[in-house]
Amino acid sequence: MLTSLYVRHFAVVEEAEIAFGPGLTVVSGETGAGKSLLVDALMLLAGARADSGMVRAGSDRAELTAEFSLDDLPEARAWLKREELDEDDTCQLRRVIRAEGSSRAWINGRPANASQLGDLATLLVEIHGQHEHQALLSRAHQLELLDAYAGNETLVGQIRELAQQWRELGARIRKLSGGDDREQRIELLGHELGELDKWALPAAELTELEASHKRLANAGRLAEGASGVVELLDGDSDFALRRALSRAHMELGKLAALDDKLAPVLELLDNASIQLTEAADGLGRYAQDVDLDPARYADVDTHLTRLHELSRRHRVSAVELHDKASALRAELTELEGAGDALEQLALKREQLQKNYDASASKLSASRRDAATRLGSEVSVLMAELGMSGGRLVVELEASTEHEPDAQGRERCELLVSANPGQPPRPLRKVASGGELARISLAIEVATLGKDTVGTMVFDEVDTGIGGAVAEVVGQKLRALGGQRQVLCVTHLPQVAAQGHAHLRVSKASDGESTRTQIEKLDAGGRRDELARMLGGVEITRETRAHAKQMLDRAQA
Questions:
Q1: Three-state SS at 49
Q2: Cys staple from 127: which of 179, 376, 415, 457, with CB 3.0 to 4.6 Å?
Q3: Helices in 33-152 by DSSP H: which ranges?
Q4: Which residues pair with 520 in a beta bridge?
C-alpha cells in the first residue's frame, strides 16, 4: 500500500507531501490545476522516461519519493530480497530529475536503474488511464489474471516445475548423446585429466611448493647472508657481538663484586651470551645446509610454470585446479557410462511428458471455463459503467511451442468491443483513454482480490460519462477500495463523493509564477469541493445542500 508521496520542484508543484490511507482516495481540482501530476509522479517512480520539462521552472532538479508498506505484498518482498534491496517491511522509491535531462533513482536508499524501478513497480502499483505502461495491457499479465480468476495457482506451479525439469533433462540428454562430439569430449577429458593429475596439487602441497621455489631461487643469497650474520655475531673481528658481550660481562663482573644489586643484570648478560651462541650456531648450520641444487630448482620452476599455464587454460586459480580435476573426472565417468544413463533419462523424460500433458490438459480446461465466465461478467459490468453493448472476449490461442512450456499450452488475449456492432479488438489497441480506464475498472471489479498488486490508480476513469453511470463508476471504485488501496483522479462529483478520503489540487499565481497545492479535505472541505464540482464558479446554498446529500448517501 502506498503510504506517502513527496514531490518537490515537480512541474508546477513547488513542494508537497501527501499521506495516503487504505480505501478509495479521490483527487479533484479545476481544469489545468494539475490533478494528474500525482499519477505522473507515480509513473516516473515506476521507471517511465523522464525529461527536463518535468522540472519546475527556475529549479535545478525535481525530486520524487514514494513509500509503500509491504505487509500484504509477499511478491514485492521476495523481489527486493532477491535483488538485495530489502529493508524491513517498507519500501521507498526515490527519483531525481535534473534540469539538463538526466535522472537518478534509488530503491531503499540504494542506487537503481529504470528497469529495476519498473520491475518492482509492477508488484506495487497498477496504473489505469491514458498511459501506455499498464500491466493489464501485457498478454503475459492477462494470462496471469485469468489463472488467478480461475484459481489455477497450484496447476500453474506444477506446469512451471514440470517444464523446468523437462528442459534440464533435455540438456543432459543432448550432452550425453553427442555422437562424435561425445567421443571427442571423452578424449579431451582424458588428456586434460592426465595433465591435471600430474601437475595439480592440494592447497597445502601447493603452498609448500611455492615456498620451496622461493627458497631455491634465493639459495645463494640466503647462504651468503646467513654466513655474514654469523660473522657479525661470533666472528674474529673486534666488533663481533660475542667479543663485545664478553668484554661487557667482564667489566660488569667487577662492578657486581662491589654491589650485589648488579648480580641480576650480570645474569641477564649470561643468558644473552648463551642465546647469541645458539643463534650463531643455528645460522652456521643453516648456511651449510642451504640447498644449492640447480636441478631441483629447475624441476620446481617447471612445475609452477605448468600450473600457471593450466590455470589460464581452465580459467581458475592454481589452487582450484585440484578441484577442477575432480569435476572433470566426474564428467568423464558420466560420459563413459552414457548408455545406461541415457536409457534412464529417456524413461524419466517420458514420465515427465505424461505428467505435463495431464496437468496441461487440466489447466487448459480450467482456462476455457474461466475465460467464458470472465468475459460474461466483465461485459455486464461494462454495461453498468456506461458502455452499453460493449463486451469482453477472453481469447485463448494454442501456443506454438512443441515442447513443454512453463505457461501451459495456450496464450491469452483480452479482446474488447466498446460499442454494439464493432468486432472485438485487442485491449492494448483500444484508443480511448477513458474507455480503457472503465474497461480496466470492470476487469478489476470482476477479478477483485485475484491479483497481488496493493495499489490501483485510475486516471480519467470517468471521461465521457455522467449522471447515474458516474455514480455506478464511483460505487464500483469504492467497492474496489474495500479490498485494495485505490487512487482515482476525477472531475465528477458522483465519483468524488464515494471516496474514503479526498484530495483537492488547486493552482495559484502571483503574476510571476504559478504554484499548485495539494490538500487533504475534511468533511466541510469535501462538501464545498463537491458543491464547486456541481455548481461551477458560483456556489449556492442549494449546491451545498445537494453536495451534503450526495456525501451522506455515498458514505452511508
A1: coil
A2: 457
A3: 37-45, 74-82, 114-124, 139-150
A4: 503
Question: Which residues partner with 92 through β-bridges?
Answer: 67
* DSSP letter (8 states) at residue 67: E
The string of pLDDT tens digits covering residues 163-202 is 999 999 888 887 777 655 777 888 889 999 999 999 999 9
Cα torsion 385, 387, 390, 392: sign: negative
CB pairs under 8 A, 24+ apart, for 74-81? 74/452, 75/123, 75/452, 76/120, 76/123, 76/124, 76/454, 79/119, 79/120, 79/123, 80/107, 80/108, 80/120
AA identity, residue 380: V
Select from 322, 316, 337 the least CA-distant residue to 172: 337
- In this structure, the number of other CB atoms found within 10 A of the CB of residue 386 comes to 20
Cα separation, 471 vs 461, in Å, equals 12
Amino acid letter at 119? D
Rounded Cα gap, residues 486 and 92, in angstroms: 19
Burial class for 159, CB neighbours closer than 10 Å (0-12, 13-18, 19+): buried
In angstroms, the first-to-last Cα distance of the chain is: 25
DSSP string, 476-525: HHHHHHTTSEEEEE-S-HHHHTT-SEEEEEEEEE-SS-EEEEEEE--HHH
State the Cα angle at 340 between 335 and 343, rounded to 5°: 110
CA distance 13 to 56: 7
Grid cell 562424435 — which residue?
180
- Residue that the C-alpha cell 552414457 belongs to: 338
Q: Range with the lowest mean pLDDT among 98-102, 373-377, 457-461, 508-512?
A: 508-512
Distance of alpha carbon 206 from the chain centroid: 40
Show the cell assigned to 4: 506517502
pLDDT at site 132: 43
In this structure, the chain runs to a length of 556
Q: What whole-number distance in Å separates Cα of residue 366 and Cα of residue 100?
A: 53
Q: Any idea which residue has 485475484 for its cell? A: 450
pLDDT over threshold 80, residue 71: yes
Q: Which of 145-149, 167-171, 239-243, 354-358 has the highest mean pLDDT?
A: 354-358
DSSP 191-206: HHHHHHHHH---HHHH
Query: Count H helices, E strands: the chain?
Result: 18, 15
